[in-house]
Amino acid sequence: MRSVALKDRVPLGPKGPLGVLVDPMTWRAAPYLLVSGAFGIGWFIVLSMAVPISLTLAVVWVGVPLMMATVLMWRGGAMLERRLMYAAFRVKIADPYRPRPERGLGAHLRWLLADSATWQDLGYLLMLLPLGLVEAAVSIVLWSATVMLLIQPVLTSLWAATGLYTDLTIDNWPGTFVAAFFGALLLVLSAYLVRGMGWLHGTLAVVLLGGSEEERLRASRARGIDAAEAERRRIERDLHDGAQQRLLSVAVDLGRAQSKFDTEPEAARMLIAQAHAGTKAAIAELRNLARGIHPAILSDRGLDAALSGLAARAPVRVDVSVELAERPPAAVESIAYFIVAETLANMAKHAAATEAAVTVVRDHRGVVVDVWDNGIGGALVSPGGGLSGLADRAATIDGVLVLHSPLGGPTLVRAELPCEW
Question: Which stretches are transmembrane (predicted)?
Fold first, then answer.
């Protein structure tokens, strides 16, 4: 997909003390912040040893493969951190690296060392040491103090029952309940601080792990080129395997009919009829191919009519709602149409759905396309797959495709297509 912009960062949290306490985001972020210091220490030790050693040995070429392995190692660590960012803070950060070359040691070295994302990964992993230590220290102090204050009634009860007394036990009930009250306040404060530290960490992760804006634009252009090339190959394949073969068969039939016209007029008429049927079939295939490139109804009547036509041809009932006061640019209309077409085709093949819905609305960023079905779910965005191709189409205009498809369903494919009227 693409990296998420800073405005899409994890929010500071829901309003109200109860909201921040029951929000799962708080309790997903808390464990990561507790151990982030250990991550920082571990990466600092590993990198402070591996980088100088590989650089020193590089002068005699022994260190070149070691340096490549070191760079790949910290890239792998950065990729793991991107996944942890989503698990802990629900921050989606795509891997921003340039495409890997097919062969050549020199090409691989340039691929690794000339990519600015490589050095931003290193900067992030080194930043984990001070940032992680601060996060872990604050988290440990806050949660330890909170727990000790909240369990004072339990400690006092144990002291009253057993006579065991520690320096952490309050020996009178009024003080115990006052401590528990302040523990509850500190619990709320700790939850807010966890969300605040999570927001800061997620923002820094996006800046460093998401790559530069130039890299994102380069990646978007590359994906657009790849998508256009794949589309060109598909059109060539469809022409070669479909209409071209039919027209070749028509030419052969007409040639045979011409040779039999005087001697076997009845056979010639049959061949001409066969050529006529083949011509109509070829015209139908060319029409379908042209519709696949850009349907005429989309140009003439817009998204609402084009999507309604797709829904009418779907094997299940599809509700269509298009709420656009004005027609968006042609590129946005085309991408939205093909996203819906491919998604409905995938639904018919794999989802076992009985109903679906398509919604197209305008928001402050552009056009949002939602395709929902009540099928079995479990859809994935895999390299080379149909959904990956749709993400590439969206990326040509810096759009994003989001998939939500848990096992058992339902499935929601959302495309956010920025544009200006």
Answer: 29-47, 53-74, 122-155, 175-194
Could you tell me if 30 and 164 lie in one domain?
yes
Find the Cα–Cα–Cα–Cα dihedral 52, 54, 55, 59, rounded to 10°.
Answer: 140
| Phi, psi for 368 (deg, rounded to 5) | -115, 125
Sign of the Cα pseudo-torsion (103, 2, 9, 213, in order) = positive
Helix (H, G, I), strand (E, B) or coil at 417: strand
> d(Cα 317, Cα 295) in Å, to the nearest integer?
22
Q: Which is nearest to 172 in space by CA: 51, 335, 180?
A: 180
217 inside domain = no
Q: Which of 293, 309, 326 is the last residue of a domain?
A: 293
Residue 68 in domain: yes
Query: Are residue 313 and residue 355 in the same domain, yes or no?
Result: yes
pLDDT tens profile 354-396: 889 999 988 877 888 899 988 888 877 766 666 777 777 777 7
Number of helices followed by number of strands (H, E) in the chain: 14, 5
Number of C-beta neighbours around residue 206 at 10 A: 22
Cα separation values, 401 from 125, 146, 361, 369, 418, Å: 29, 42, 15, 9, 12
Tens digits of per-residue pLDDT, 63-88? 778 888 888 899 999 999 988 888 88
Nearest-angstrom CA–CA distance, 297 and 313: 14
Structurally, the chain folds into a number of domains equal to 3
Q: Taking Cα atoms as reference points, which of 304, 294, 385 lies closest to residue 345?
A: 385
Q: Are strands 366-373 and 400-404 parallel, antiparallel or unpaired?
A: unpaired
Write down which residue in 211, 232, 266 finishes a domain: 211
Q: Quote the CA–CA distance of 108 and 101 in Å, as a whole number.
A: 6
Query: Which of 397, 113, 372, 96 shows the shortest CA–CA distance to 227?
Result: 397
Q: Helix, strand, or coil here: 289?
A: helix
Backbone angles phi, psi at 99, to 5 degrees: -60, 140
Run of H or E including 369 = strand 366-373
The whole-model pTM stands at: 0.53
User: Does the residue 114 lie in any domain?
Assistant: yes
Query: Does some domain include residue 1?
Result: no
The domain that holds 398 is classified in CATH as 3.30.565.10
What amino acid occupies position 343? T
Chain centre distance of CA 225: 19
Q: Annotate 93-122 with DSSP letters as a single string.
A: ----PPPPPSS-HHHHHHHHHS-HHHHHHH
Q: CB atoms < 10 A from the CB of 119, how many?
A: 14
